[in-house]
């Protein structure tokens, strides 16, 4: 369960988000659209607990993550949230397999982590690339590694910031297909920021940001 209540965000005197409220439950898919600078990434970072709101409240599974201490929050984020960034953020010196395993290094590792990494790499179609470095992959392949890495700890919420932003149309389509397929298998909440309006109709929920606000909200709370 994700509940965002009257969230605002200021950077100094600049008000980037204002009075944002919505609530989603369970296995749903949400797309966030809006013009450049409307606050999409900022909102995603707040949901992902990477950035704290200036006002309002975020609840994930009945916990306000921002009341946790810094080490507790790091552990919470690692367990609950998966993040796919626009420009993949893979570590160049590590292999594909090691990159997928990075989120399991921070805290005690589950015994089957390596097995799960191999399974995820199979699902994203990269079995033949496990020992390559990111520099030896195409853009679409790197994004697929980033998706596998984001899913390694079985997060309940998968956040993607323009995951297909740097890819051609055909590759974007393939990555979107992959995200939805994994969303079904993992039964997580999928939240995607995109400029690709062709993708919007594939999502169950749509948040349209305009100048840091949500002028109209179509979501479960309003039954629409
Ligand atoms: N750390 C920061 N310090 C100051 N201003 C910031 C910071 N992060 C974002 N902003 C400002 O907040 C506004 C919203 O930024 P954000 O990155 O959330 O937009 P966006 O909707 O993701 O845009 P895009 O589609 O271009 O990625 C912008 O005007 C930006 O300059
Ligand atoms: Mg952005």
Description:
The chain is α/β, with parallel strands linked by helices and 224 residues long. It is built from 6 helices and 9 strands. It is globular. The strands form 2 sheets. Strands 5-6-7-3-8-9 form a 6-stranded mixed β-sheet, with helices on both faces. Strands 2-1-4 form a 3-stranded antiparallel β-sheet, with helices on one face. The chain has one domain (2-222): Rossmann fold (3-Layer(aba) Sandwich). The longest helix is centred in the last third of the chain and has 18 residues, at 169-186. It has helices spanning 40-47, 70-80, 96-105, 113-123, 139-151, 169-186; strands at 2-11, 14-24, 29-33, 55-60, 81-84, 157-161, 189-193, 205-208, 217-218. It binds adenosine-5'-triphosphate and magnesium ion. Adenosine-5'-triphosphate binds at residues 11, 14, 16, 34, 36-42. The site of adenosine-5'-triphosphate has 11 residues, from strand 2 and helix 1.
């Amino acid at each position: 369960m994700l509940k965002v209540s009257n969230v605002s965000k200021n950077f100094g005197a600049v008000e980037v988000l204002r009075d944002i409220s919505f609530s989603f439950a369970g296995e749903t898919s949400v797309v966030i659209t809006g013009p450049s600078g409307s606050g999409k990434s900022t909102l995603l970072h707040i949901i992902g607990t990477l950035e704290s709101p200036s006002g309002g409240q975020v609840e994930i599974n009945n916990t306000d993550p921002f009341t946790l201490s810094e080490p507790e929050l790091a552990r919470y984020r690692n367990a609950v949230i998966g993040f796919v960034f626009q420009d993949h953020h893979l570590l160049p010196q590590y292999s594909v397999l090691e990159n997928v395993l990075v989120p399991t290094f921070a805290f005690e590792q589950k015994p089957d982590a390596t097995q799960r990494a191999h399974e995820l790499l199979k699902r994203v179609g990269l079995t033949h690339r496990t020992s390559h470095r990111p520099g030896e992959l195409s853009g679409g392949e790197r994004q697929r590694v980033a998706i596998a890495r984001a899913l390694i700890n079985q997060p309940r919420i998968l956040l993607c910031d323009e995951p297909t932003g740097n890819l051609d149309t055909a590759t974007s389509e393939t990555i979107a297909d992959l995200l939805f397929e994994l969303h079904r298998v993992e039964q997580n909440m999928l939240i995607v920021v995109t400029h690709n309006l062709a993708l919007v109709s594939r999502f169950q929920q749509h948040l349209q940001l305009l100048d840091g606000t949500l002028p109209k909200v179509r979501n479960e709370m309003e039954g629409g």
